[in-house]
Amino acid sequence: MKHDIQLDGTEISVIKALGIGGSEIDGETLRERCSDLEKAELVDTLKGLIQMGYVDADNDSFYDSKGMDKEYFRVNSGYAKALKEALVPRPQARKSKRVRRE
Protein backbone atom coordinates (compact mmCIF):
# COMPACT_ATOMS: atom_id res chain seq x y z
CA MET A 1 0.00 0.00 0.00
CA LYS A 2 1.50 3.28 -1.08
CA HIS A 3 0.96 6.34 1.09
CA ASP A 4 0.84 9.71 -0.62
CA ILE A 5 2.08 12.03 2.12
CA GLN A 6 2.24 15.78 1.54
CA LEU A 7 4.19 17.72 4.18
CA ASP A 8 4.73 21.45 4.53
CA GLY A 9 8.04 23.00 5.53
CA THR A 10 7.35 23.08 9.26
CA GLU A 11 6.27 19.45 9.32
CA ILE A 12 9.40 18.46 7.40
CA SER A 13 11.57 20.28 9.95
CA VAL A 14 9.88 18.49 12.86
CA ILE A 15 10.09 15.04 11.22
CA LYS A 16 13.78 15.58 10.45
CA ALA A 17 14.41 16.71 14.03
CA LEU A 18 12.67 13.59 15.36
CA GLY A 19 14.52 11.29 12.99
CA ILE A 20 13.04 8.38 11.07
CA GLY A 21 14.99 5.75 13.03
CA GLY A 22 12.26 5.17 15.59
CA SER A 23 14.10 6.37 18.67
CA GLU A 24 12.32 8.56 21.19
CA ILE A 25 13.33 12.09 22.04
CA ASP A 26 11.93 14.30 24.74
CA GLY A 27 10.11 17.53 24.01
CA GLU A 28 12.87 19.74 25.36
CA THR A 29 15.44 18.21 23.01
CA LEU A 30 12.99 18.51 20.12
CA ARG A 31 12.45 22.19 20.94
CA GLU A 32 16.24 22.73 20.93
CA ARG A 33 16.57 20.97 17.55
CA CYS A 34 13.75 23.12 16.12
CA SER A 35 15.06 26.38 17.53
CA ASP A 36 14.12 28.25 14.34
CA LEU A 37 10.41 27.57 15.02
CA GLU A 38 8.34 29.50 17.53
CA LYS A 39 7.09 27.48 20.50
CA ALA A 40 3.41 27.79 19.58
CA GLU A 41 4.12 26.83 15.97
CA LEU A 42 6.05 23.75 17.11
CA VAL A 43 3.23 22.70 19.45
CA ASP A 44 0.60 23.15 16.70
CA THR A 45 2.68 21.22 14.17
CA LEU A 46 3.30 18.36 16.61
CA LYS A 47 -0.39 18.12 17.46
CA GLY A 48 -1.21 17.99 13.74
CA LEU A 49 1.36 15.24 13.09
CA ILE A 50 0.04 13.27 16.06
CA GLN A 51 -3.54 13.69 14.85
CA MET A 52 -2.59 12.39 11.38
CA GLY A 53 -0.83 9.43 13.02
CA TYR A 54 2.65 10.21 11.70
CA VAL A 55 4.08 10.89 15.18
CA ASP A 56 3.45 9.00 18.42
CA ALA A 57 3.64 10.59 21.87
CA ASP A 58 3.42 9.19 25.38
CA ASN A 59 0.57 11.57 26.12
CA ASP A 60 -0.92 13.73 23.39
CA SER A 61 -2.84 16.05 25.72
CA PHE A 62 -0.22 18.79 26.03
CA TYR A 63 -1.30 22.36 25.38
CA ASP A 64 1.85 24.46 25.58
CA SER A 65 5.62 24.17 25.36
CA LYS A 66 5.95 23.43 29.10
CA GLY A 67 3.70 20.39 28.76
CA MET A 68 5.47 19.39 25.56
CA ASP A 69 8.89 19.41 27.28
CA LYS A 70 7.83 16.53 29.54
CA GLU A 71 6.60 14.27 26.73
CA TYR A 72 8.51 11.78 24.57
CA PHE A 73 7.97 11.70 20.80
CA ARG A 74 8.85 9.28 18.01
CA VAL A 75 7.92 8.76 14.37
CA ASN A 76 5.22 6.12 13.91
CA SER A 77 7.00 3.07 12.52
CA GLY A 78 4.04 2.28 10.25
CA TYR A 79 4.60 5.53 8.35
CA ALA A 80 8.42 5.63 8.54
CA LYS A 81 9.07 4.45 4.98
CA ALA A 82 6.41 6.72 3.46
CA LEU A 83 7.67 9.70 5.48
CA LYS A 84 11.21 9.01 4.36
CA GLU A 85 10.05 9.04 0.74
CA ALA A 86 8.11 12.26 1.37
CA LEU A 87 11.23 13.93 2.79
CA VAL A 88 13.47 12.86 -0.09
CA PRO A 89 11.27 12.19 -3.10
CA ARG A 90 12.80 9.95 -5.73
CA PRO A 91 12.32 10.88 -9.36
CA GLN A 92 9.55 8.91 -10.99
CA ALA A 93 10.54 6.49 -13.72
CA ARG A 94 9.64 7.90 -17.08
CA LYS A 95 6.86 6.11 -18.81
CA SER A 96 7.84 4.67 -22.15
CA LYS A 97 6.12 6.16 -25.16
CA ARG A 98 6.57 2.99 -27.15
CA VAL A 99 3.33 1.28 -28.01
CA ARG A 100 2.92 -2.36 -28.85
CA ARG A 101 1.01 -2.82 -32.04
CA GLU A 102 -0.92 -5.91 -32.87
Short characterization:
The chain has 5 helices and 3 strands; from the N terminus they run αβααβαβα.
List the helices and strands and how they pair.
Blueprint: H1 9-18, E1 25-26, H2 27-33, H3 39-52, E2 55-57, H4 65-69, E3 72-75, H5 80-87
Antiparallel strand pairs: 1-3, 2-3
Number of domains: 1
Portion of residues within helices? 40-55%
Rg over C-alpha atoms, rounded to the nearest angstrom: 17 Å
CATH topology: Arc Repressor Mutant, subunit A
What's the average pLDDT? 84
The sequence of SSEs as H and E is HEHHEHEH
Low-confidence stretches: none
- How many helices? The count is 5
The largest sheet, given as strand count, sense and whether it forms a barrel, is: 3 strands, antiparallel
Separation of the first and last Cα atoms: 33 Å
Q: Give the overall shape, derived from the CA principal axes.
A: elongated
Q: Could you say what the CATH architecture is?
A: Orthogonal Bundle
